[in-house]
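#onboarding

Welcome to the new folks! Below is a worked example of what a typical request in this channel looks like: someone posts a single protein sequence, and someone else replies with the predicted structure as tokens. Don't worry about understanding the tokens yet, we'll cover that in week two.

Example request:
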Amino acid sequence: MSEQPREPGQDREPKRDSATGPESSPSSVPSDALPLTTGGEAKAADGEAVPPAGPSRAVEEQPASPGDLDELSSASPVGRLAATVERLSREVRAAQAEAEGRALIELAKGVLVERLKCGPAQAARQLTQLAEQAQVTPLEFAVDVINQAARDRMSEVTDAFLAATKAADEAESESAAVRLRAAESGVLAADDTQAVADALLEQALRPLGAVAVAVWAVGSDGSLTLAGSAGFSPAEAARWRYVPPDVVTVARRGLVERDGQWITKLGATGLPSIGLHHHPDGGRVALPAGTGGRIHGVLEIAWPAPLEPQPPQIVRQVEALAELCAHTLELYTPPHGAAHEPRVLPDAAELMDLADGLHDPALVLVPHLDDEGHLVDFRIQHVNSRFLDPAGRPRAVVSGALLLEAYPMAAGDSELFQRVERVYATGEPFRARRMNLTALVDQVPLSAVADISISRHGMSVLLIWRIEDETARLASLLQHAQRLGRIGGFEENVLTGEITWNGQLFDLYGRPETSTPVALEELPAHAHPDDGVSIRRFLRTLLHHRRPAAAAFRLQRPDGVTRHIRIVAEPVLDTDDRLLLIRGAYQDISSQHWTEVALAATRDQLAHTEQQATERNRLTLQLQHAIMPPTQAPLQVSGLQVAVRYRPAETEQLVGGDWYDAVVLPSRKVLLCVGDVAGHGIEAATSMVVLRNALRGLAVTGAGPGQLLSWLNIVAHHLTGAVTATAVCGLYDPVGRTLRWARAGHLPPVLVRDTEAAPLPLVKGLLLGAVPEAVYEETELQLEPQDTLLMYTDGLVERRDRPVEESLTHLLTTARSAPSSLDQQLDRLLTYSKSDTDDDTCLVGIRVG
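Example response:
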């Protein structure tokens, strides 16, 4: 902060060294540099209190000389650490002072550039010459220049405001001029910020409808101190005397926003502020107060009603008032002295009596301030008789200590200290359930879970915590378990007849809790008549044989609802084996019972469905074997060997529609065909029968294979429920050794000649049943002696993990090594097939003699 302005003839203090500049508060010793972090005090090794290394103590009390530091350094490690901290603090203070001095000199140069209309270099020379003439240092002369410029600027702002308002409204301008001039004179004549607040409210703000004003001074750490207020009650002003840096209020928003805060309705923002409870629906304005480019505080104004948008002249008038406040705030220093030392205030004494009457552990906290009036910690002024420390320490250890000294972990994850600080600043109480409390005992963190209540009473804070009782927590857990499991407990005294039920058991019986519990001997009257035998057996085992027993029965409730209940109980005997008590539990198993009934019905239905599926599969397999046996009697054709193989699916559910045929037609030609109907089961098998028999009948006409497939497509599309199928049809002429063939979406036949095997060239042909009418291309193949032709379905080559082309390559490799007979070759192909789909497989082979 710059030095106070002086008149030219006023005596000055001794000159300061220009290299170091004005005195600046040294930095506080970091908390982690002390043996224990206690929020303001540290304890030496011998247990005596060591004064905190704060700004005022380091400068004003007893600064250590280099000799003292050397002696202390040689005495203990703590002394060496203190000497290092002192040296670093001096260096930091020197650097801060030098930086502030340079900033003030540069600011004064800027003022001279503006006033003298010259360049920066000429302004620097002029500043040096004027300082030498006045016999002061350049820094002191720069302070005087800046202060004089601030006073001139204040007058200019006032004149500009008056000129603007006069142009808008002559009458209003005159009134505003009077108010502003009166306020300016009051501010300049006032010697403290409280008088400034009174002058602003009476001279300038009440005519605008305002009812209260607060002048806040901003600290170096960003905290706000109520420097003056008017219109607020003394209790409210005392409660808002200090706002920590991390508490967001209306004044805080006005400090960080360049244009301030203009709030229509304070209660709608949710922001805490002074006087919120008195004027929750009123408007509020908070503007930064600064001079010379520095913000010194905030001007906050309160209206009793919602604040409508203000005209420009009113806005400029309020901004001018904020700049008037900055003149006084620039010279404001927080009050010192014993008035701010912690003491037992009247409200704290009353709060102690209140705490002693509570049944929960409670602490009475009073603020602990540093020499500049800033809140740094809270002192534990009183602990009540119910106090229970999380670490098990006695009351005498905690009472009188600082909060962060007794609980240094309070500033950690739980943020307990920040909660207490906020409640003290705003007055708004805080409640929390199951907050973690941690105490550091012998460097070991001990934790506990507690419900927290924090409230402010005058200048003191009441902190209440209720540490969670393990027994109560387990009891609550048991209650929830009984509720979720629908379990009701009971205890019956056999000697006195006294019966105890919990609330859940009354709910199971459908009876109010004010009714009389039902004795065990009366249980048959409340059960279904068909369950009487099991209940009597249960009672005989329990009461006569005196053994634990259990039973399940249907409970008939008064509301007509029947519940399925399971009861379990045990006898309690005395030392002479006499029956004293019966205790046990009821459990509602209605949902479990009906679930078991539904599962039983589902199992019966699944068994019936499984039996039906097995029967269908058996019939399908019988039908398929009856029409297509795995082997067929060889055909008697001159110069031609014909062999067929059929391998059904290993799983009955996968029995499909693969089919083959090899028959000699009346024209002495041989019909050769294989096909595959889509799907499995009885539908695929019956469709296969239709197509196979239809193709046999159509072949008698003497038509070619292309025409036969075209007719068969009509049959598949119209006569079999629109099934789809693939097929290969061939007509072999033994006279010319020629084969005319066509295909309908099927894999082409494989020709094995000498040591080569290759599929026949593809011919066009759509699968059967896809469209109503289709044309199929056919081609002719001239066979030679010892040629072998193979027709097959995809069950021979199809795999789940490989493409068909790769499986077909394996088939061709196997077919090249032809055994001596055709039957052996077909068996070899089936044996070494790599198909893994477990599908039907048909294979037809012919060999020319």
